[in-house]
Design brief:
With 66 residues, the protein is mainly alpha-helical. It has helices spanning 2-19, 23-28, 32-56.
């Protein structure tokens, strides 16, 4: 589950990196609006990563011998 969470976190940033090699796509993110989109994407990706880790956490099993 951790690998899936990391992959889900990294994939949009990889796509953004690949888009940055195209001048017309990079121009779309140069302004203030582009910075807002990138910041919102970073915040949502971080929240999604944390939620996926929380969902995938295994419950603690009760101890048999105490």
């Amino acid at each position: 589950m951790i690998v899936a969470a990391r992959l889900a976190f990294a994939t949009p940033w990889l796509v953004l990196l690949l888009l940055s090699f195209r001048p017309e796509a990079a121009a779309a993110y140069r302004g203030g609006g582009g910075a807002v989109v990138i910041a919102a994407g970073a915040a949502l990706a971080t929240i999604g990563y944390r939620v996926m880790l929380a969902i995938g956490r295994l419950p603690a099993e009760p101890r048999v011998l105490r």
